[in-house]
UniProtKB/TrEMBL annotation:
Organism: Marinoscillum furvescens DSM 4134
Keyword set, alphabetical order: Cytoplasm, Ribosome biogenesis
Protein name, entry field: Ribosome-binding factor A
Gene Ontology cellular-component terms listed: cytosol
Subcellular location: Cytoplasm
GO molecular function, one term: ribosomal small subunit binding
Amino acid sequence: MTQSKRQIKFGKQIQKDLSEIFQKDPRHFFGNSLVTVTGVEMSPDLSFAKTYLSVFPIKDAEEVFYRLDDRKSEVRKLLGNKIGKQVRIIPELAFFHDDTEERASHMDRLIDSLDIPPAEENDEDE
């Protein structure tokens, strides 16, 4: 389902604000991992935000999401402090692992490992 302009605009604002929140005290939320907010999808009524995070190193992703789930209400409160005057409802947050980069890297490795012989010139003439 496609999002409206309003959902997209609000999602980008939430993404920016969450990024700022996480940058202020990254060790509190993520330990020693590097985390990037890669996208936010908003529900039609703007009350729910699916937040996609990219985690490096990948092996720490499970721990990062566990820590975030424990601190979800704290993150929502900090978000409310940033946007509370502009919106009626502070959206509920759900965090998801964005593994697009890992999948792209895996596909690159697969393609690089293929052994494709060059085409013979006789085949091109036919």
